[in-house]
Amino acid sequence: MIDLALVPVAGWGTRMLPATKSQPKEMLPVGRKPVVQYVVEELVNSGIRQVLFITGQGKSSIENHFDIDAPLITYLRETGREEQLQELQFEREDVEYFYTRQRRQLGLGHAVLCGKAMIGAQPFVVALGDSIIGLNAESDIVSRMTAVFEREKADIVVCFEEVAAEDVVHYGIAKPQGTVGEVFELADLIEKPSVADAPSRLAVAARYVFSPVIFDALAETKPGKGGEIQLTDAIRILLKRGHKGIGVKLADNEQRFDIGNFESYFQAFVEFALADPQYGTALRDHVRKLLG
Ligand code: UTP
Question: Which residues contact 113 (CB under 8 A, 6 or more apart)?
Answer without folding.
Answer: 215, 218, 219, 229
